[in-house]
Amino acid sequence: MVIKDEQGGIVSRIKRYLGSVTNNIAEYQALIAGLQEAQRLGTREVEVYLDSELVVNQVNGLYRVRDAKLKTLEGEVRRRLGHFARWVIRYIPREANREADRLAREAVREKVDSVVAGPEA
Question: In this structure, which topology does domain 2-117 adopt according to CATH?
Fold first, then answer.
């Protein structure tokens, strides 16, 4: 997960090892981690770009969430989104999300969790 400021500068990079989970669970977990970090930073408005069309459409209310595990995660996302004055979640193709994809692959390969925040992010 990569968090950027309004000018496009990187504020935080998050890597989290999740073990063996589905892609959809991993997408929800990444979204939750990003929202947690944005909340910690005191952000009032968020624009989220995910390369999971399913998660984007579920959170935006276009698709129903049928899987029990995803329903729990979607509820957590909605709870966290309630802390922001304004939020938008949009789909982008994986090719446009390379930095976040790289961090996810590193977390799996290295089996590590890390949040790098501030100018060195």
Answer: Nucleotidyltransferase; domain 5 (3.30.420)
Please write the tens of the pLDDT for every residue from 6-63.
Answer: 888 888 888 777 778 888 998 999 999 999 999 999 999 999 999 899 999 999 999 9
Domains of the chain: which residue ranges?
2-117
Instruction: Say if residues 117 and 11 touch (Cβ distance below 8 Å).
Output: yes
Strand pairing class (10-15; 2-4): antiparallel
Whole-prediction pTM: 0.85
C-beta separation of 120 from 9 below 8 A:
no
